[in-house]
Write a sequence for this structure.
């Protein structure tokens, strides 16, 4: 009866910061090799199913591991930065794990345009929970930042906002141009036929859901643009607040994870402004994988530092 508990204890013992760093480096290296080797397809051809499934697995699994590590931090009374912090960060990472699973079903199984899907509800949950968790980490600390540090945060806010506004303007201009061409050339009927072909053979509830969600595409994308900038500001503040402390290394990983996701999101926003239909699996999506790996690294390092501090106290006593 004690074997499952022993196996769980062994598994937990193996999830040290050093082991997580080693596995994360291997995972990242393999991801780069996988994307570089198979992301380029011949003109007019789609990526094979095995490649798409592989990209989803490479991206999703690190978030699942990071969520479990956050759960471990939340359960530990020794965590110095506060258990509630890791509860919300873990909930956010779990939301991302579920969202990627739903997103893959929507795109690969049903063959629908992944611009917006039921997964976006969980992606929004990821953004809110992750952001609130980082805010909770900053609130107890006194932000005695220097003027140049506030300047860095201001520059990040200005540059991030300007870039997001530019991408939204480019998207709006692209949509307007497409509508004018279609109206002038009489291709509206072709679009209707293509839409019917896309929905052919799908259950009615899936078709109705996809059409209903399409109404919210613009406000949801605007939320992502604003939220990405907000997360960058909070992550930068968090990084500067913990800079030089004993726990700075773990929060550097978290901040780097937010930056990696911001790069991937901005690239995704950019490619959707280009002509043609976007298909998942582009090379720059490696940054989504890097983000998940960095979140896992930061969570594991926080646990190691907190528990090692407790062990040292016991040794002194």
């Amino acid at each position: 009866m004690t074997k499952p508990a022993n196996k769980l204890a062994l598994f937990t013992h193996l999830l040290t910061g050093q082991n997580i760093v080693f596995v994360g480096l291997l995972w990242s290296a393999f991801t780069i090799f996988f994307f570089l080797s198979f992301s380029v397809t011949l003109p007019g051809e789609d990526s094979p199913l095995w490649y798409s499934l592989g990209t989803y697995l490479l991206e999703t699994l690190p978030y699942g591991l990071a969520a479990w590590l956050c759960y471990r931090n939340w359960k530990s009374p020794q965590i110095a930065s506060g258990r509630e912090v890791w509860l919300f960060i873990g909930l956010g990472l779990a939301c991302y794990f579920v969202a990627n699973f739903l997103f893959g079903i929507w795109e690969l199984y049903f063959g629908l345009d992944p611009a917006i899907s039921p997964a976006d509800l969980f992606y929004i949950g990821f953004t809110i929970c992750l952001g609130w968790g980082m805010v909770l980490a900053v609130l107890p600390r006194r932000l005695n930042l220097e003027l140049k540090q506030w300047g860095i945060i201001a520059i990040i806010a200005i540059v991030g906002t300007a870039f997001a506004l530019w991408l939204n303007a480019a998207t709006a201009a692209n949509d307007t141009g497409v509508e004018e061409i279609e109206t002038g050339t009489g291709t509206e009927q072709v679009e209707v036929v293509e839409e019917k072909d896309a929905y052919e053979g799908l259950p009615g509830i899936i078709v109705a859901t996809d059409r209903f969600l399409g109404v919210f595409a613009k406000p949801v994308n605007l939320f992502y643009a604003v939220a990405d900038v907000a997360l960058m500001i909070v992550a930068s503040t968090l990084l500067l607040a913990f800079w030089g402390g004993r726990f700075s290394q773990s929060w550097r990983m978290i901040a780097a994870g937010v930056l990696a996701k911001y790069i991937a999101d901005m690239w995704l926003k950019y490619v959707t402004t280009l002509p043609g239909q976007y298909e998942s699996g582009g090379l720059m999506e490696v940054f989504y994988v890097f983000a998940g790996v960095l979140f896992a690294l930061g969570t594991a390092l926080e646990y190691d530092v907190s528990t090692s501090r407790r062990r040292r106290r016991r040794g002194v006593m």
Q: What stands out?
A: The chain has eleven helices and no strands. Residues 177-183, 312-317 have pLDDT under 50 and may be disordered. The first helix runs from residue 3 to 14. The radius of gyration is 22 Å.
